[in-house]
Amino acid sequence: MTLWAISTPQVLFFYLKEFGGGWKKMGNHSIAMIGVLFLLLCIASEAEYVAYKDPKRPVNVRVRDLISRMTLDEKIGQMVQIERTTATADIMKNYYIGSILSGGGSVPAPQATPQAWINMVNEFQKGSLATRLGIPLIYGIDAVHGHNNVYGATIFPHNVGLGVTRDPYLLKRIGAATALEVRATGIPYSFAPCIAVCRDPRWGRCYESYSEDHRIVQMMTEIIPGLQGTPPKKYPKGYPFVAGRRNVAACAKHFVGDGGTTRGINENNTVISRNGLMSIHMPAYINSINKGVATVMVSYSSWNGIKMHANRGLVTGFLKNTLKFRGFVISDWQGIDRITSPPHANYSYSVQAGVHAGIDMVMVPYDFKEFIDDLKFQVNNNIIPMTRIDDAVQRILRVKFIMGLFENPFADQSLVNQLGSQAHRELAREAVRKSLVLLKNGKSAHAPLLPLPKKAPKILVAGTNADNLGYQCGGWTIQWQGVSGNDLTRGTTILSAIKNTVDPTTQVIFNEDPDPNFVKSGGFSYAIVVVGEPPYAETFGDSTTLTIAEPGTSTITNVCSALKCVVIVVSGRPLVMEPYLAKIDALVAAWLPGTEGQGVADVLFGDYGFTGKLARTWFKSVDQLPMNVGDPHYDPLFPFGFGLTTKPSRTDY
Questions:
Q1: pLDDT value at residue 211
Q2: What is the mean pLDDT of residues 406-421?
Q3: Which is deepest, 106, 232, 338, 449, by most CB within 10 Å?
Q4: Of 332, 374, 585, 596, which residue is the catalytic one?
Q5: By the 8 A CB rule, do 72 and 379 touch?
Q6: Quick one: pLDDT at residue 445?
Q7: How many other C-beta atoms can be found within 10 angstroms of the C-beta atom of residue 72?
Q8: How far apart are CA 570 and CA 421, in angstroms?
């Protein structure tokens, strides 16, 4: 990398070669001129030194040097993040775009290989490096439960299950594994973790939350040093940290109060006192910042009627000034558009309000030229001060320098084999085992059904979620809303896991929705019924009823009325269970376990014991909602912290 435009010795050599013959005639006067020339060249060479390209210089020196060289167009470009489908190398070069993202399901090709991802990201990067100053782009993606957009990646349990484990070290290991899989595709930035405190399971994003209790959410922020690496001792608080090329920049989201909206309506209004906001929804951000989180994403939601994307008091006043956060703040997808209702109704106001609030990088997936033109107009007309632009760009550049993007802008090809590695799948399987919660075990405490015997003449497996990998992975898997079926990626369904685990002589019969006659006449020793929810994401998951998807309830009735049965609920949240509980012999909450369904069978058949404890209250009726631990009207079906345990037993019955 060139740190000087041309060196002093080179210039002197050139001068001596061209004019040295006349010096003898000019005498001492010539020697004096040479001295002056030498001094001037030394000064000039120092001026040509490019400090921001020197990795030996402190980050803040490099940031200041680079920003001093940037035009307004180059600065605004750094504040822009566009969608992959909008981007080209020429757009990156001509508009100085600072970042690209893949939206949910946005991939270079169906079932794209890591190399295909790398090639795509590298081509965009070449466009960025071809700009006058050669500032690398940062590519971001929603790797929220593993590298979930990518075919063949390890899909870990969603956060609702991980909160059950209360195991920060497990989360750190999951973060490290996820970082390697994201880097395997040439991507250095993940929009994770979601540190929402979901206070109402009617919210369609509740499965992205670790718990209704902020203390568990705080504990689970240990995924951040997993993703980014652990900062060294005495590392300055509030400064972003990314250890190297095997780590990614993380993103704590969605700031703040996204899990507390009225009736759990997505992107709605969180009505709560400042003390309530600070004591419930803010603590995990303090943990995240102390652990060096690189970025924070702002929530679509409002706090007491004020849109968070326009809330300068919280974004700049509290996050940046009080908490001393020194990474960059990013909007959500078209987040500034949604400051107005309807969205984009007064875009100039939205640009002004969002940037003034303290948003540094703006996710404008498609109409980026409109944003650039509008922001440039407002700066040139002193509506938005240049100091606000400089603050935003300094923060973005700080993260890029700390990550080492200037030294290593391209993918590390040696990591491609990390995607979906066996070690990561074993880790996900462990996470599944620890995330299961045993809610009922036998119709009396003296006659437990679990662990199930591996050896039996014939067993029945039923239910819509038993043999559907897409259902057990949930939303944010391959597609934004998730998909149904078993072809979406590589993994093990619960049915396959059961077949892998039982004795070879045990006959496993699968019937998704058997009628009563089939159940009664089948000669089954026992039944496993796997029901729950189909996949969903965000607003599409908002629900006022929280019922098991049909025909799940009739499957429970038909099977459990005739046979000893264990019901496994595959869902992103507690569902209505009270009307069916008396019919059920054993009940297991499996949440959204991901690709490694074998972890369910590991515990079901006693190779490992049940250890999980509810990190969410299981309600009796939706009429009780919202209802969280500590509330005066607390009357749950299963309380927060509940979970029966079993001991490992490798003895077949």
A1: 99
A2: 98
A3: 338
A4: 332
A5: yes
A6: 82
A7: 13
A8: 25
Determine the number of helices (DSSP H) and then strands (DSSP E) in the chain: 23, 17
pTM: 0.93
Instruction: Judge whether residue 609 has pLDDT over 80.
Output: yes
Question: What count of Cα atoms within 13 Å lies in the side-chain half-sphere of residue 38?
Answer: 9
Residue 49 has pLDDT above 80, yes or no: yes
Please state the separation of Cα 340 from the chain's center in Å. 26
- Please tell me the total number of residues recorded for the chain in this structure: 653
Token pair for residue 449?
Answer: 């059904």
Query: In a 10 Å sphere around its CB, with 0-12 CB exposed, 13-18 middle and 19+ buried, how is residue 71 labelled?
Result: exposed
Neighbours of 276 (CB within 10 A): 14
CB of 271 closer than 8 Å to CB of 304: yes
Our answer to whether residue 538 is catalytic in this structure is yes
On whether the CB atoms of residues 435 and 591 are closer than 8 A, the answer is: yes
Residues 6+ apart with CB under 8 A from 287: 218, 221
- The one-letter amino acid code at 93 reads K
Please give the angle made by the CA atoms of 402, 407 and 412, to the nearest 5 degrees: 100
* Contact predicate 514/563, CB 8 Å: no
Residue 304 DSSP code: T
What integer pLDDT is reported at residue 48 of this predicted model? 76
3-state secondary structure of 333: coil
Question: Torsions phi, psi of 267, nearest 5?
Answer: 65, 20
| Annotated catalytic residue, options 538, 585, 596, 602 | 538
Strand segments (E) across 456-539: 458-462, 507-510, 527-532
Q: Where are the beta strands (DSSP E) in 486-582?
A: 507-510, 527-532, 565-570
Which among 569, 532, 544, 542 has a CA at the least distance from the CA of 625?
Answer: 544
Q: Classify residue 230 as exposed, middle or buried by CB count within 10 Å of its CB (0-12, 13-18, 19+).
A: middle
Clarify whether 332 is annotated catalytic.
Answer: yes
Residue 58 CB-density burial (10 A; 0-12 exposed, 13-18 middle, 19+ buried): exposed
**Which class for 540: exposed (0-12), middle (13-18), buried (19 or more C-beta within 10 A)?**
middle
Segments of 377-470 assigned E as strands:
437-441, 458-462
Secondary structure (3-state) at 113: coil
pLDDT in tens, 512-537: 999 999 999 999 999 999 999 999 99
The single residue listed with the structure tokens 């993260």 is 399
